Amino acid sequence: MSGTIYRPGNTVQASGIYNVVNSYGTPQGRQVTCVEGEPFPPTQYAGEYGYVLAMATQHSRF
After folding, report:
1. 47 pairs with which residues across the strands?
2. Which superkingdom, per the lineage (predicted)?
3. SS3 at position 8
4. Looking at the whole model, is its pTM more than 0.90?
5. 6: how many CB neighbours lie within 10 A of its CB?
């Protein structure tokens, strides 16, 4: 999987659906929906490192 890995607490740059990934960028079987301008949520399980954009959406909070 390619793309920037965003860490919990980073500001979401683009609204969309994000894969939860490990430190190598490998998806861990979960996805979250994040809104531009909001912080990324904390990860829930051991081995989860951050988030990679899977599909951008049109939503913006502004």
Report:
1. none
2. Bacteria
3. coil
4. no
5. 20
DSSP 38: S
Q: Residues 51, 18: contact at Cβ < 8 Å?
A: yes
Structure tokens at 26: 């490998």
Two tokens, residue 41: 């949520």
Determine the Cα–Cα distance for residues 39 and 47; give it in Å rounded to an integer: 20
Kindly give the residue spans of alpha helices, DSSP state H, lying in the chain. Answer: none
Angle at the Cα of 32 from the Cα atoms of 59 and 43, rounded to 5 degrees: 135
Measured CA to CA, the distance from residue 58 to residue 42 in angstroms comes to 24
Neighbouring C-alpha atoms within 13 Å toward the C-beta of 43: 23
- First-to-last alpha carbon distance for the chain, in angstroms, is 30
Please give the average per-residue pLDDT across 16-26, as a whole number: 97
